[in-house]
Amino acid sequence: MIIGIDIGSTITKTVSIENGRMIRKIKTRAADAVTSAAGALGKLIIENDINIANVQGIAITGAGASKIRHDIFGISTQRIEEIRAIGIGGMFLAGEDHIIITNVGTGTAVIEAGKDGIFHLGGSGLGAVPFTASPKSCSPPPTLTASWNWQKRGT
Description:
Number of strands: 8
Helix content: 10-25%
Shape: globular
Mean pLDDT: 83
């Protein structure tokens, strides 16, 4: 069994795959990426009576994946770049070998996935965060230019 964990900025999605089939999926929320990933894995295992010894590997992606620097609970854990994860996951879910995917989350990305590769056609992970920041952190509301500059600086 392989576990996939998408540690998003607001929701963490977790799925178990066995013999090439999606078996279970859950969503969780937590205050930070590490708690969210560990909690999502624990919830999936406990609520579905999964023996953790049967988990062969974990694949993580999403905004919070960079916070997970080592294997989770001693299980081989690998980070998958988010565009690649969306492309592979989209083809898997659609049962197709060439598709265009629109991934709508905090940001929106359009991705082409097929035998020639996975390509980010457009869109952004910018999302609404810069536009809905706490009034204490930005007043007056930011301009689009200011928001892009924040993204470039990583703030």
